[in-house]
Here is the input.
Amino acid sequence: MDNEKCLVLIRLYGAKDFLWNSKSPLYHNKTVREDAWNEISSLMNLPVAELKKKMTTLQASYRREKSRVAKSLITGSGTHHVYVSKWFAFDEFNFMKGKDIPNETSDTMSELENVS
Here is the structure.
């Protein structure tokens, strides 16, 4: 798959937040997710399995580049050089920037203490 098709795939995937955002109410709805993949497949005229596999490799490359940027921001290495990704699809993944922020959790222990 050439770079232009990859960019189209990333844009289509990013537009459907329930495919990648675990905080989306539809994220756990397998039927909705499969329907979305089928729609992307028909738009791109490629099999769903191939698109999912390609998206997995693209996401891995994005995580690698994001990690390089983050490591370059750590101070204490003497000369401070911030890594700037030259990977063709890095900016297309901006929709995933906050994906790694943990979900809010509730303190169940304090709730249990109040019950007794």
The helical segments are 3-15, 30-44, 48-72, 108-115. Residues 48-72 form the longest helix (25 residues).
